[in-house]
Amino acid sequence: MTMTKVTTQTRESKKENTSLRAKGFVPAVVYGYKTDSKAIAVEEIELIKVLREVGRNGVMKLDVDGKTINAVLTDYQQDPIKGQILHADFLAINMSEELEVAVTVTPVGDAVGVKEGGSLTQPNREVTVKVKPSDIPDHIEVDVSEMNIGETLTLGDVRDKIDFDVQEEDDYALVSIAAPRSDEELEELDSTEEEATEKDATDVEATEEAPEEEKAE
User: Fold this and answer.
1) Domain range holding 83?
2) Which of 1, 26, 106, 193 is 20 to 30 Å apart from 152, CA to CA?
3) pTM given for the model
4) Closest Cα to residue 152, out of 118, 202, 126?
């Protein structure tokens, strides 16, 4: 398996984070197999490029002070508005040992219940699989084409069709088909959303009109 290398630089303290982000770098930390926890920074453009190549759960090589570390991205924080990656956590791994990773569940097929007006929901969008780093899947597909309104697909229903060791229990809900909302329910939902919008607008106005000393507090 070919892995893409990501160059890192040492990060001395949190005080650098703002300036690093302004320069296009992501403050990060790497820890795990034969690796002491170390504060680093990676170029955001390079990280995004690598993630597109290997996938969200893919293994990459981190160049840390001249040492090559096999690692996976375990967590990251992202600006909800700008989309900028604010921080990343990398786990150093042993390529010969299994590890537990979260993998996205992707429904496939046109559910019968959806064709009849129901709506598809995912109570849980991920499952935890135990697998060797070289075998980590990008996602796991579950067939929902036979699902009717009111039915829920659990892990127990599809476990034998998944080629990986999934850690959750059999009653772990993956996909549900909800019944269509009645006109009364839709009207109530619209009314609730309007009230929430009006409240948010009132809160914003109150904040804007507050004295400067109150805002500072």
Assistant:
1) 5-95
2) 193
3) 0.68
4) 118
Q: Evaluate whether residue 192 is within a structural domain.
A: no
Cα radius of gyration (the chain): 23
- Measured between alpha carbons, how far is 201 from 10 in angstroms, rounded to an integer? 44
The CATH number of the domain holding residue 137 is 2.170.120.20
**Helix, strand, coil shares, percent, the chain, to 5:** 30, 40, 30
Give dist(CA 138, CA 163) in Å, integer: 13
Burial of 189: CB neighbours in 10 Å, binned 0-12, 13-18, 19+: exposed
Instruction: Provide the CB-side half-sphere exposure for 67 (13 A, CA).
Output: 12
Max Cα–Cα distance, the chain, nearest Å:
64
Where a domain ends, among 144, 163, 178? 178
Domain count, the chain: 2
Residue 118 counted as domain residue: yes
Under 8 Å between Cβ of 67 and 6: no
Distance CA(41)–CA(11), nearest Å, equals 6
Q: What is the pLDDT of residues 85-127, one digit of tens each?
A: 999 999 999 999 999 999 999 999 999 999 999 999 999 999 9
